[in-house]
Amino acid sequence: MANSLNSTLKMLRSGAAMQAFVLLGAGVAGSAISVVPAMAQQQPEAVAVGQEEPAGTDIVVTGSRIARPEADSAVPITVIDDTQLSLEGQQNISDVLNELPQVGIGQTRTNTNFSTSGTGTATVNLRALGSSRTLTLVNGRRFIGGFAGDSAVDLNNIPTDFLERVELVTGGSSAVYGSDAVAGVVNFILRDKFKGISVRGQSTLTGKGDAQRYFASVTAGETLGDGRGNILVNYSYDRDEGLFSRQRAISAQDCSGVVCGLGSFSSFAPQGQFRLLSPTGGAIAAVNLPTANQFFSFNPDNSLARLDGFNTGAFGFNRNGVRYISVPVQRHLVSGIANYEITNGIKAFVEATYSNVKSQASLEASPIANADLGSLGYNIDNPFIPAAVAAQIAGLNSDANPANDVGFIGFRRRQNEVFSRSNRASRETVRVATGFKGEIADRFNWEASYVYGRLRDFNTTQDVDAARYRNALDAIRVGPGNVVGTDIVCRDVAARAAGCVPINLFGLNTADPLASAYVQSQVAKSEDIVNTQQVWSANIAGPLFALWAGDVGASIGVEYRKEKTVDDLDFLTNTGGNSGNQIPDLVGQFNVKEVFGELNVPLLKDKSFVKYLGLIGAARYSDYSTIGNVFSWNAGAEFEPISGLRFRGVYAVANRAPNIGELFSQPSETFAAVSDPCDGITAATATPEAVACRANVPAIGNFFTANPTGTFQYSLADIQGINGFVGGNTALKEETAKTYTLGVTVSPQLVRGLIFTADYYNIKIEDAIGSLGRSFSIQQCLLTGAPVFCSQVTRDSSTGFVTTVNGQLINVVTLETSGIDFGIRYQRQLNLLGNDRFSFNGNYTWLLDYKQQSDPTSAKIDSAGTYGNGFSTHRFNVRGTYSIDEFSFSWQTTFTSGGNYIYNDGTGPSVSNTPAVEALNAQPDYWLHDAQARFDLKSGYSFFFGIDNLFDKKPRYLPGTPFGTPTGLETAADYDVIGRRFTAGFKFKL
């Protein structure tokens, strides 16, 4: 088997993929199978050797609208059925999907604490290509996007106990389902029949007694009209209490590189850190005033403390002490389905979903420096200045050295008693799908439907009004005492009349509550997101005519879709009047008209060495109001030489239209740090960038003419003052994905109840939407002069300094990924100890490459083999279950192979080449084990007890810098950051 796999890999990389799979299929068919799953459909019934297997029926399987036998899907499908869901015992379907090797980490409870919107959301991210490139469906129909201007669906809206199964399709499926299906499709199939009442309840607690989770669900169903219809309803409630970073050793303290604790704390401390500044607000050179005489802070008793610069140690602040490592989430979900046969062959249906989801972040109080408020700092006559500092300033300003004169006191301070910036999110989602479906002449199935979806996501937090804050900083003394508002007042008379109260930031908890209330924004900082979606569609499918090998199946349909987003931010955020950057509202909409069709053509059947041979094809023509006409298609073949051995292959051209946010986001301001290659060069610096700086920037050339021995250098204020605007682009076009899959399915007659699959996938996305790095634009403008780069960069004509660097979304990125999925599913009635059974299923993905090219001038970076992020070379998830009578025991193992966490070209991570960081970069293999015991009594009652992360496997330390891991985690979201968890629950049916 190992030799067969090695040969296969060589052939795949040389392009002979079909030959490889012929050999692989033949090798598997004649060998003992011990690999891991991706299935064609539902779990097969357990059948003893020698018994007849249940006959298959034609159904509609995700990836096609043409009904066919469930095991004969022409595209790779992974299925999670309700049996597996019950063994998982999870209350949120995202926790189940994230265990699959085909899925990269999307947004989860453990990486959204710092989301300005989207706190506590959950998305699915097939092939780690981005959640917006995975099309999420419910019963084959679209679901409203869960984010402003984005199609990605928040899985918090999917009721776990209402699911019959989940189907995942790899590869481009735009021809069948439309835009966004470039990485694949996840289709949630809801129950449509149920009679009686079913109740499930469970509770989860960690081995440390924290991170509690509670879940309760009630499902009720009844038939209507003498069996002509049925109705079923589900209500689910669950609550996750979340987990603070300080509750786990790995994230209890701020870390930077290899240092955790003192030395890595924030210099924005609750008691403040301060610096004497010149009369122009600039830094005073150490040669004129020693550093130790410039900086100061306060001890815990608010006595004055002198510093040698901004301090990240004992006078710093541990931000992780108040952050969440997993945010709390509370959900109410109500789902209902009704079907009624109006006449023979015509059935009306309604599907309805309502969800209310609440979550909140826990962030440290906002760090604010005087520059963030557009202020030079405290005036030196401010009455709050400590007496010792005031005396020092008076002495410096009265001596004979003007170079050490002080004009302002700059500050950086945590706003603990001033305001909280922790986000609170409340989301309401409503979706209704309704229509009619039926049969014509017992031959054609048809459906006409309408889907309406609406999301309202309301986010609130506190902030300050920068203008009020500046007024409060500028205080004067008008009385002999120290009473704020009486003896010490705001300097501006008009501000005083409007209620200004001066603010004292010198020390811990020194801000008067009235001053804190005054500087807070009088307009609540909020973001009110409303997404709406309407979809009208109709299709008909069935056999067109018969050929010698069977019926030619066909499907044809039309669809009209309209989507709109309004992302309304408060006035101060719109104008940049608070502590953050200026962000405009987002308003955008589009519509698309589509026609689509499929064919399934059998060519040969029941011939010598050809049990079945057929072709499939699909096409979709789309007319977008934003990007114009788009055409997607696929074509494939199926070949079954003998019973139980089937080959399949599909080539597809899929697309993703730019979403509303990418098209219509207005430019928003950023002050993120950038790097100018000209910074620090001399007349002799010989790098290509330095040569270009002197030759291509007139002001820099003039500088060296006047200062041949000088250094062209930015001050800290110059660097911090470089702004830029980033935003959408109405000139964007669609992303195009060219994908193909080649696979084999083995279901040997001698081993009933076994299905094995192996599928090679290859996805290449061209013209993917992205933005150029702002520093990169500066560099490439210097080296190439290309307008695509230089149009983003503005330099001061007199100084040569970069003043503005913009970053606009463009079609510039290329993504490529390929690999092999293996799947196995097996059930067997053992009859060893009576009525005992065994089942086994698993999924294994072998990632061959994952390449990204950020722009045409950059090299492709292959991340395959790095740890996590969906890039690990080997990932698998397997589960074995042994059952006897009413008792069952299940064991699940999830594996992720190790590697460097960030790309390593052999010289070490590009951000840092220190040996200590190199050691952190190397991550070992990671195993997790879960177990569950279950009692299913004949009376309809079930009791279960499960342990997740049975051996309490700890995550590995990975600081945010240089690895870019989620803030506050100090590790990757691919790891289990919570630890061993115990779940106990029950279920009963009446």
TrEMBL record:
Q: How is it placed in the membrane, per its record? A: Multi-pass membrane protein
- Where does it localize? Cell outer membrane
Q: What InterPro entries does this protein map onto?
A: Beta-barrel_TonB, Beta-barrel_TonB_sf, Plug_dom, Plug_dom_sf, TonB-dep_rcpt-like
What does the UniProt keyword field contain? Cell outer membrane, Membrane, Receptor, TonB box, Transmembrane, Transmembrane beta strand, Transport
GO-annotated cellular components: cell outer membrane
Has keyword Transport? yes
> Where in this chain does the record put each TonB-dependent receptor-like beta-barrel domain?
407-950
Residues of the TonB-dependent receptor plug domain:
71-185
Q: Which Pfam families match?
A: Plug, TonB_dep_Rec_b-barrel
- Protein family according to the UniProt entry: Belongs to the TonB-dependent receptor family.
Q: Write down what this protein is called.
A: TonB-dependent receptor
